[in-house]
Amino acid sequence: MLSRVARISAAVLxxxxxxxxxxxxxxxxxxxxxxxxxxxxxVNIERVPYGDLNLAxxxxxxxxxxxxxxAVRNVCNFDSRGISADxxxxxxxxxxxxxxxxxxxxxxxxQMAALGQPAFxxxxxxISARLR
Length: 132
Description:
mainly alpha, UrcA_uranyl, 2 strands, UrcA family protein, signal, flat
C-alpha cells in the first residue's frame, strides 16, 4: 500500500513539475516575441529624454530646448540640398506639437521644486515630422 501511495505521489509531482516547466517555457517564449510597430515609413519620429535634467534650473531648461531643436532638425531634414519650404512647415508644426509637451514638463518641474523635491523627472518629448 505504501508503494502505491509513493507511486501516486511521484506521478502527481512529476505532472505538477511538467506543467510548471511548460508554463515557464510559455511565459519565456511570450517575453521573447518581437514587438511589431506599424507606422507610415515616411514619418520621422524622435524621442527627446529629459530625465537627466533638473528642469527647475535655467541652464537645464536651455538644454531641453536645444535637444528639442536638434530633434526637430533631424526629423524634418528631408534632404541635404538646403532648407526648403517643406522643412520650414515641418519644423513649425513639429515645434507646435513639442511646445505643449515642454510646457507640461516644465510645469511639473516647477511643482516638484515648490514642494522641495528634486525637479528631475523621467520623461521624453516626442518629435515627429509633419507637413500638415
